[in-house]
Automatic annotation (TrEMBL):
SUPFAM superfamilies: ARM repeat (SSF48371). Belongs to the importin alpha family. One of its GO terms (biological process) is protein transport. It comes from the Eukaryota. Residues 137-175 are annotated as: Disordered. Gene3D superfamilies: Leucine-rich Repeat Variant. Keywords: Protein transport, Transport. It comes from Fibrocapsa japonica. This is Armadillo repeat-containing protein 1. InterPro entries: ARM-like, ARM-type_fold, Armadillo. It holds the Pfam family Arm.
Length: 175
C-alpha cells in the first residue's frame, strides 16, 4: 500500500480539507506541544511555496521566530526551514524577515547555537539572503550597488619598531 500522488497533490487535498486554519489555530495557542506540531504541519503545507501567502496572512512569522529560541533542536530546524521558504518564495521575503527582527535571531543562532549543523545553516541563510548584495529594508530608495572593497588585514604587531622607536628600543641596541 502507501498513498499515491505527489506531495503537491497531497498538500492541496489537505488545504481543501481545511487543515490549514486548524494548524494556524494550534500554532497561535500557548501550548508548546501544539505549537510544535502545528509548526511542522504548516511547514509541510508551505514547503513548496504554493500555500505560503495564505499562511503568512495569519501573522505566523513572529511565532516561527520565537520557535527559533526554544531548546528543542527539531523545532529550531523546522523554524529555520520555514524561514527558508519565506526567504525564497514570499514576495520580498528577506525584507519581510528583516522587518520582523529575523536577521538578529538568525545571526544569534549562527553565533551561539550549540548544534554545529544548525549554527552553520543559520550562517548560510544570513550569507545567502542578507549578504553583500542585500540593501536593507525597501521602505526607502535602494542605494546604488557598489562593490565593497576587501577589508584590509589588521597591521601585524610591530614589536615597538615604528613611531616612537627610540622610546621602546633597549639601551643596548642603540649605537
Amino acid at each position: 500500500g502507501g498513498g499515491g500522488g505527489s506531495g503537491t497533490g497531497r498538500r492541496r487535498a489537505l488545504v481543501q480539507a481545511g487543515v490549514g486554519p486548524c494548524l494556524l489555530h494550534l500554532l497561535h495557542s500557548d501550548q508548546f506541544d501544539f505549537q510544535k506540531e502545528a509548526a511542522f504541519g504548516l511547514y509541510n503545507l508551505c514547503c513548496d511555496g504554493v500555500h505560503l501567502e495564505e499562511v503568512m496572512k495569519s501573522d505566523v512569522l513572529q511565532i516561527y521566530l520565537r520557535l527559533l529560541r526554544v531548546p528543542d533542536n527539531s523545532v529550531v530546524r523546522c523554524a529555520l526551514s520555514f524561514l527558508t521558504v519565506v526567504l525564497t518564495h514570499y514576495p520580498q521575503g528577506p525584507h519581510v524577515v528583516e522587518r520582523a527582527g529575523g536577521i538578529e535571531v538568525i545571526d544569534d543562532i549562527h553565533y551561539h547555537h550549540t548544534d554545529v549543523e544548525i549554527a552553520a545553516y543559520a550562517g548560510h541563510l544570513v550569507d545567502e539572503f542578507f549578504g553583500e548584495d542585500y540593501h536593507g529594508d525597501l521602505d526607502g530608495p535602494s542605494p546604488p550597488f557598489e562593490p565593497r572593497q576587501p577589508q584590509q588585514e589588521p597591521p601585524a604587531f610591530s614589536l615597538g619598531l615604528g613611531r616612537g622607536k627610540h622610546l621602546t628600543q633597549p639601551a643596548w641596541m642603540k649605537n
